[in-house]
Design goal:
This protein has 9 helices and no strands. It is rod-shaped. α2 (about 25-40) crosses α3. It is an all-alpha fold and about 200 residues long. About 85% of the residues lie in helices and about 0% in strands.
Length: about 200
Amino acid sequence: MVQGVTVVRGTTVNRAERRRLAAISQLPEMLDVLARELRAGRNLHEAIQAASMLPSLYGLGLDTLVARFASGERLVEALDRWAGALNHPDGDLVRAVVSLGSVTGGALAGSMERAALTLRERAGLVDEVRVLTAQTRASAMLLFVAPIGFVVLLSMFDPTSSAVVFTTGAGQLCLGLGLVLDVVGFVWMRWLVATVTR
């Protein structure tokens, strides 16, 4: 029963994380929409309200921003809460751009378009890193399995030679040392990949 609950909770967490990441991927489109609305003559509150009604941006929770504006909450404070709920550097970038533009009154539409381009370039880089690290992980697994497979095949097709490995002290020492180095190399490669993808 406990294991079943753990699985259900893990599934729920994974779904929530997938929804959050899907929302993060909508941020460039959100910035484009806001910039377009601003260039059309709307103010920032109206632009956010227009964006909140788009089905493609529903996962971003812009309706909560609109509700906070309606309740009298200041724009910067509402954006802080909204970005905190996203809990992602891309959300922090959007918050900074929108907040700074609303305070300074600069060319906010252009800043939003440049930020959207930055987010898309960052997402492309993340995808590229993911592909490259996937290849590295596959190589690490191959390098880990290959020596073990070689020993198994050796014992099957050349029992005389494999007997030396398994029955003599020197052979057992080489086998043990080889397995240890194999595991260390695998863990090291996985660690290197993990440091790149953080």
